[in-house]
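Human
Can I borrow your eye for a moment on a structure tokenisation matter? Give me a protein, with the fold worked out from its sequence. Write it directly below this note and I will take it from there.

Assistant
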Amino acid sequence: MMLKYGGLFVLSALLIIHPAVAQRTDENAVREAEDGFGKSVGSDSVGIYASGNVRGFSASDAGNNRIEGLYFDKAGQISNVIVRGTTVRVGLTSFGYPFPAPTGIVDSDLRRVGDKPVVSVQLNSGDYLGTDLVVDAALPVSEKLDLNLDLGLYDDEYVSGASGWFVSYGGVLRYRPVQGVEATAFFAGYQYGDEEQAPVIYTADGAPPPRIKRRRYFGQHWADWAGDNRNVGGTIKANVGRWQIAVGLFESHFTKNDYASAYYSSVEAQGSGRSTLLIGRDQNNASTSGEARISRSFGNGALVHRVLLSARGRRAEARYGGFDTLDLGQATIGVPDPQPRPDFDFSALTRDRVRQMNYSVGYEARWRDFGELNLGITSADYRKTVAQPGRPAEVVNDQPWFWNAAIAVTPTRSTTLYGAMTRGLEESGIAPANAANRNLALPALHTRQKEIGLRQLLPGGMKLVAALFDLRKPYFDIDSRDGFYRVLGEVKHQGLEASLAGQPLAGLNMVIGAVYLRPRVTGQAVDEGRLGSKPIGRTNLTIDANLDYRLPCMPALSFDVHMLYEGEKVANAANSATLPAQAVIDLGARYRTSIAGIPTF
């Protein structure tokens, strides 16, 4: 059983049907995490970063998603039922991942099968009494072939009072025809429906709105999201002598058959504002992506060299727009105002296509007890086409070169120092609807990052990892001179991140991560006073601390503590309003036992 307290009640049970294997009951993110930057294992997660927020930016937008080390362009989230865990790698922890882009790497590991068949059933209730049921079958078909099959049923409840249902499914097939060669194929997806979204609130003075009652949904109950998500793909990895070959091909889809976005504008201090609803249908994102990489090692003994060749590509398409906007009149936030469902008047959709290829050459040198050198250069071929109904297609082309370089040295057996510089290319979307060049295809972002840091092994098996980083990207805004949306400056995130992890005492695992971030925006809009110098929603300080303790006299029983602190956040573009700092403490306990000989917790 697992019980946590952090403003809500969580009850979890996991049963392993095969009595000889208890691998799922031992899944624990705190015990498996190597650092405090970001790790998920099953339903557990720890760390200061996640895929949508690494050093203050999205690693997904930066093109840094990986599936077992291979490039993957994610249109929709991979169903968690087939993902055993996800790791966020930054700084020194990203060494060994060829050709990184600025921000960080988010690598997902698919489920694997043990020596014996296992069927596990996991039941959770929590998060405002939402209930989840997950069934996983791990089946070793033969010595060379194994199969995972998974199903998940979710009834999600949110703090806003909104809710939604999800049906997840998936499978992982692995085949090892000869030693050193493994082929993996997977499919995963989910259907979702009746998913309500909390309205977005825009206040008249830019200050935070008045408090509203928790768990009371005040949107329209017929304004739901519904659709499906699908991911399929496969990889082949082979080690043949000094040659290493890795190939991956993936298809990702996310569809919103029904879409609704509610917002309140010009909300006054007493909570009254204009209620508006944006309704759409048949919104779709799809991407085909993959990577082919070949490398060869040279040298023996203390010094080993490796040369790498890689080709990465993606072909992405999105359909969006065609919305119908409904004015629901004056209303008060937090107070339900049900209205009848009207007939909608949808218009044609905009089609957005991106084709990108990256061709890379890399070199790595590893000198035992001395250090490591990583170098890479990439030629990119980028093309984006935006076709709006009734208008000529807008086309953007870019063919830049970018590079990465990193070096690590080990002056002592317990100390490693490193420095790295990286250049990259990211998607930038289209101009917003209130710009004179609305829906114009924007050029891709050229990004850059530099960092220095260290890893220090401490007494008692503890490990400290720390880094100073400087991450910069172009900043888009509407030019006050002509109303066009273009690059007017730069957004930069400078900061210090640190992780302390290990087992200081027998039975006690500790993972602590912290980041001090100094985000800033520069450019014309800031100089003219139209925009504050701090980005919305960013905090200067985040601390995530986790402890897991197993009693020496009763190893089946463990206690865990999770403490999260997030500092003050800027709440509006003018930087005139802030949201206060917050701290959350979760207390939990686990008891690993068996019911009728079946491992359970």
